Amino acid sequence: MKPIKLIIADDHELFRNGLNELLKKYDDVQVVALVEDGNELFQELEKHKDIAIVLLDITMPNMDGFQVLNALKSQNTNVKPIVISMHDEGNYIASCAKNGAYSYLLKNTDQDKLIKTIRIVNGGKKYFQPQIAEKMINYMSEQSVSENILSNKEKEVLGLISKGLTTKEIAKQLFVSSRTIETHRANIIKKLEVKNTAELIKKATEINLI
Amino acid sequence: MKPIKLIIADDHELFRNGLNELLKKYDDVQVVALVEDGNELFQELEKHKDIAIVLLDITMPNMDGFQVLNALKSQNTNVKPIVISMHDEGNYIASCAKNGAYSYLLKNTDQDKLIKTIRIVNGGKKYFQPQIAEKMINYMSEQSVSENILSNKEKEVLGLISKGLTTKEIAKQLFVSSRTIETHRANIIKKLEVKNTAELIKKATEINLI
DNA sequence: ATTTCAATCAGTATAAATACGGATGTTATT
DNA sequence: AATAACATCCGTATTTATACTGATTGAAAT
C-alpha cells in the first residue's frame, strides 16, 4: 500500500509544522514538503510528480490560495487541493468550491476529521461537511434579494440582451419598435446604476437577475 | 403545540395524495391544501396566512417550481419552500439553493428523512443532505474549466470592459491605442464564440473569467 | 530556423448603443 | 379620484462597437 503523498502550504510556520507532526502518526500519509506560499508550492509540484493532495491555506503572501486553486484547475494535474482556512464565511467556501477545492476544513477541525477527509479526497471524492455546505448554501441564497426593481418587460428585455440579441432583433421578437427596446434598455441601465450594457450584464448576473 | 401547516404542490395527483396520506401519521404536521401548480399555490397562500412550509415540485405546468421560488423570495413571506424533485442533477439543485429553497429532497427519499427535514426547516434552518450538497458542489466546480483560452492582456481588457469602461477609456488606461483594444475585444469575442459584448460578459461570468 | 502566437497599430464602412429631449394610454395603489 | 408606475412610442445627434482586410514586432515553441 503506497502512502498518500501530500504537501502543506501555509504561511504560518507553527501551523505548518504542527500539522506535519500531527500527520506523522498516520502510516498511510506522507508529508513530502512544507511550503509557505503558492510559488513554492508549484516549485515542489515540479519536483514531485506523484503528489496526491495539497493542504492549502487561503491567506498566503505572493500567490494566495484562490490563485493556487485556479492554477491547479487550469493545469491538468491530479493534485487534489483541500482548503484549510480560519474563515468560515460562505463566500470563501463558495469560491473555493467553484474553483475546484475537494474539501474545505476549518482550522479548528479535529484530527480525526482531517485524516478522514484526506482519505476520502485521496479516493477522488469531494467531501464538504454538512456545516460547511450549509454556510455556502446560505450565502448563495442571500446573494439575490432584488427581483422587484425591474418590471416584467424589463426583465424580459434584459434576458434577451444577455443572449446577445441586438435592439432591433429584440424589437422584432417582441413585436414592438426598436425605440421601445432602447427606452427599456436605458431605463434598466438607470435603475441598476451602471454605465453601459457590459457593466449591466455583469451587475445583473451578480444580483441574480439572469 | 401548534401543528406545522403545509401545502403540497405537485402536478401528479397520485404523488400529491400519497404524500398527503403519508403525512397524516404525524400529529405535528397538518396538510392544509393540495395544489397542482404555482398559480393555485399562491391562491391558497392568499387564503391561509399561516402556512409554514410548501413541499414543491419543480416540473409543473403554468408556473413551475423555479418561478415559485423566485416569487416567494421577492414577496416577504415566511413560507419556507422544500423542493421535492425527481431530478438529482447538480444544476437543478444549485438553482434551487440560489433561489431560496430551504431543502432539496429526491422523490425516492424515505419518510423518516422527509419528516425530519420538515421539522428542521420549520425551525427556520436550511437543510441539504450531504449527497445533495455534494452533487451541487461538483456541478459548481465543473462549471469552470477554461482559464487558458485568453491571454493575460485579453483577461485584463475583459476585466475593464466588464467594469463598464469604453474602448477609449481602456486604451488610455493601458497606454495603447484604441485600435489595440478593439482588436483585443474582437479576439475575445471570437474566442468565446459570442456575438457581442453583452453575450460576452454573460459567458465570461458563466465560465468564471470575471 | 521556422512556425506560431500575443500584442501592437491602421483604414473603411456599417451597425448599434447612448444621451438628450418629449408623448400617450393602461394599470396599480392609495 | 388622484397619483404613480409602467409599457409603449417618436426625433436628433453623438459616441461606440462591430466587420472586414491587413500589417509589424518579438517571444516562445518545435
TrEMBL record, chains A, B:
<dbReference type="InterPro" id="IPR001789">
    <property type="entry name" value="Sig_transdc_resp-reg_receiver"/>
</dbReference>
<protein>
    <submittedName>
        <fullName>Response regulator transcription factor</fullName>
    </submittedName>
</protein>
<feature type="domain" description="Response regulatory">
    <location>
        <begin position="5"/>
        <end position="122"/>
    </location>
</feature>
<feature type="modified residue" description="4-aspartylphosphate">
    <location>
        <position position="57"/>
    </location>
</feature>
<dbReference type="InterPro" id="IPR000792">
    <property type="entry name" value="Tscrpt_reg_LuxR_C"/>
</dbReference>
<keyword id="KW-0597">Phosphoprotein</keyword>
<feature type="domain" description="HTH luxR-type">
    <location>
        <begin position="143"/>
        <end position="208"/>
    </location>
</feature>
<dbReference type="GO" id="GO:0003677">
    <property type="term" value="F:DNA binding"/>
</dbReference>
<dbReference type="InterPro" id="IPR016032">
    <property type="entry name" value="Sig_transdc_resp-reg_C-effctor"/>
</dbReference>
<dbReference type="Pfam" id="PF00072">
    <property type="entry name" value="Response_reg"/>
</dbReference>
<dbReference type="InterPro" id="IPR058245">
    <property type="entry name" value="NreC/VraR/RcsB-like_REC"/>
</dbReference>
<keyword id="KW-0238">DNA-binding</keyword>
<keyword id="KW-0805">Transcription regulation</keyword>
<dbReference type="InterPro" id="IPR039420">
    <property type="entry name" value="WalR-like"/>
</dbReference>
<dbReference type="GO" id="GO:0006355">
    <property type="term" value="P:regulation of DNA-templated transcription"/>
</dbReference>
<keyword id="KW-0804">Transcription</keyword>
<dbReference type="GO" id="GO:0000160">
    <property type="term" value="P:phosphorelay signal transduction system"/>
</dbReference>
<dbReference type="Pfam" id="PF00196">
    <property type="entry name" value="GerE"/>
</dbReference>
<dbReference type="InterPro" id="IPR011006">
    <property type="entry name" value="CheY-like_superfamily"/>
</dbReference>
